[in-house]
Amino acid sequence: MKCTLVAVFSLVMLSLAPAAFGQENGAKHEAASEKFDPTTVILNHVQDAYEYHFFTLGDFHAVIHLPVILYSPQKGFSVFSSSKFGHEGEEEYDGYKLVGGNKIVPVDATVKVYDFSLTRNVIQTFLAMALFIILMVNIAKKYKKGTGVTSAPTGVQNFMEPIIVFIREEVAKVNLGNRWQRYMPFLLTVFFFILVNTLFGLIPGAANVSGNIAFTLILGLIALVVILFSTTTHFWKHIFWPPGVPFLVKVILVPVELAGVFIIKPGALIIRLFANMVAGHIVILAFISLIFIFGEMSKGAGFGFSPFSVLFIVFDYFIELLVAFIQAFIFTALTAIFIGQGFEGSDHDVHPGTHDGLL
Q1: pTM (global) more than 0.90
Q2: Handedness of CA 308, 313, 316, 321 (dihedral sign)
Q3: Tens digit of pLDDT for each residue in 198-243?
Q4: Residue of 15, 33, 1, 2 lying closest to 288 (CA atoms)
Q5: How far from each other are the two terminal CA atoms of the chain, in whole angstroms?
Q6: Into how many domains does the chain fold?
Q7: Residues 344, 15: Cα–Cα separation, whole Å
Q8: DSSP code of 58?
Q9: Which residues contact 293 (CB under 8 A, 6 or more apart)?
Q10: Tell me: the pLDDT tens digits for 147-180?
Q11: Is 134 a domain residue?
Q12: Which domain holds residue 264?
């Protein structure tokens, strides 16, 4: 289904390519202004926005405008549709203007504004969360009725149960030992929340939520809080005074260990997910942009290259589908590892599959 969507999406963009070409009979400055800019197009697609823009056909723009909610101590609340800024964001409304397509600033520089708008990243996060909750609640109801317990799982359970078992056996138990049950709800929530948002982002026209640094930053900070609350006195003793290490080495090692706990570990979670999700979308958009770039050279070249571009895009979609599962797993596994390190060695927990669990 996703491959069909991206193929249709690419063909629609191909059919609209002539509209993106500079008008040959126009003035030179008009032709230059209409020249296709792949950098702008790619950045506009991977960044947040105040609307869902699907395609443009002549003067028709398939757009869903989202609500803008602003608060200014000087002006109070302002609630209106993002359509008030015009299609290109060239219009001002109620003393505000849209800059770069993804930032609202007051016309008067002395006015301070707080933005609570429901951007496409926010809307899509709510949709993914609603889908995730509905899906899990329905599956839980089936298990309560005995489906999947006294009988074989049915429907979505067939897809979800192997994933849940895998997270339990290969992530939670291996890294958390006897405490795995305490952290299973958190680990499963993190895994499926990242997965659902990433899969949503593969739909043409949708927002790339998991490729937004704010999204991964919040997930990383939540993981950091859980990691810190899981630590023990034994852990902090090793951080502030590593045993068996010369004093001069401790002077260097302690700051490094503290940086590892508060910066490096959450940073690895945040940047890894963000970079992989952004990179995948940029590659897809770059292949789509090649149609327009070749089309500006020659219409024949644009149409001739389009089949190859579509094939590359469909192939990359298969890769992105795999990456969605891999990145959700890596984020969850690293979180479990970091949590396990917080209480490792402080008691006699046995980690199945590791250390004493092998004996």
Answers
A1: no
A2: negative
A3: 999 888 888 889 989 999 999 999 999 999 999 999 899 889 988 8
A4: 15
A5: 47
A6: 1
A7: 59
A8: T
A9: 36, 38
A10: 888 888 888 888 899 999 999 999 999 999 899 9
A11: yes
A12: 120-358
